[in-house]
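thought: user wants a sequence for this fold. calling inverse folding tool.
action: design(structure=
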């Protein structure tokens, strides 16, 4: 069957959600009588009543109750699809999602410099920790960690990545060779493909982690904070370590990793000028590192 006009369905959704023609009219910027007329035309088209009209209230008929979830889901998908392709309102903040570790490191420096150059652009920075926290919905772009193989996303490699041990300057004085790690606390960040066992094996000290205490955190923000305070030795990405004066790298050995940090955005979305400015800034910043 042909669909009823969208204005009629919009009136139904607002009236069904608020159970008030008057409130629906306020939301849609029309009069109560206009909502009533659209609902009446809709009911005539469908051949069934959608509301039971009481003297001072409304209730949905069984047909109205059954139809409402489909209408709301359809409007939600239209809104999501519009945002995916065209983005939010042109004057809306540019939303960037990244892990707390990335936010607290080089990204803070880059965003500060961007803000000084583009004071007319408002940036909204939101956090994510686990892979499931990331996605195209609700943001203009993201900085993700992985192999860059996300479907329907444009991905720009920010830098080839390596991992290395870091600790406080005081603790570093006790570490001359990888064997000296024995007896100290290893700070582990969960969720990464490579960790301390891999680095120790690369250093020729396979299995040495068994002779160390362990402290497990869910973010590298936590492992780096603990390491800076002398709680142990963290294994971190070079990009997250650079620029910090409260940590040192006691060993020169760095471990290559197949994963890295990527600047990511949906391929189908047309970027607003403000989004394009931030994207270009972060994309070009990698060439200066």
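)
observation: tool returned 289 residues.
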């Amino acid at each position: 069957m042909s669909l009823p006009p969208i204005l009629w369905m919009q009136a139904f959704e607002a009236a069904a959600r608020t159970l008030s023609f008057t409130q629906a009219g306020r939301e849609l910027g029309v009069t109560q009588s206009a909502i009533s007329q659209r609902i009446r035309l809709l009911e005539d088209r469908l051949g069934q009543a959608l509301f039971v009209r009481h003297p001072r209230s409304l209730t949905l008929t069984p047909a109205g109750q059954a139809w409402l979830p489909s209408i709301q889901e359809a409007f939600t998908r239209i809104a999501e699809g519009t945002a995916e392709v065209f983005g939010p309102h042109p004057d809306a903040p540019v939303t960037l999602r990244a892990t707390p570790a990335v936010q607290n490191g080089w990204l803070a420096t880059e965003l500060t410099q961007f803000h000084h150059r583009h004071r007319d652009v408002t940036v909204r920075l939101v956090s994510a920790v686990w892979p499931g926290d990331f996605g195209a919905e609700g943001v203009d772009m993201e900085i993700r960690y992985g192999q860059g193989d996300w479907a329907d996303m444009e991905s720009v490699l920010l830098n080839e990545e390596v991992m290395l041990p870091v600790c406080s300057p005081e603790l570093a004085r006790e570490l001359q060779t990888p064997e000296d790690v024995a007896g100290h606390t290893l700070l582990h960040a969960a969720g990464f493909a490579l960790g301390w066992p891999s680095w120790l094996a690369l250093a020729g000290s396979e299995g040495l982690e068994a002779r160390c205490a362990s402290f497990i955190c869910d973010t590298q923000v936590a492992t780096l904070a603990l390491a800076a305070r002398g709680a142990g030795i963290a294994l971190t990405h070079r990009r997250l370590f650079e620029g910090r004066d409260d940590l040192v790298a006691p060993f020169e050995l760095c471990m290559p990793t197949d994963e890295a940090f990527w600047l990511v955005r949906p391929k189908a979305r047309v970027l607003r000028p403000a989004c394009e400015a931030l994207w270009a800034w972060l994309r070009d910043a990698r060439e200066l590192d």
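thought: summarizing for user.
answer: Here is the designed sequence. The mean pLDDT is 88.
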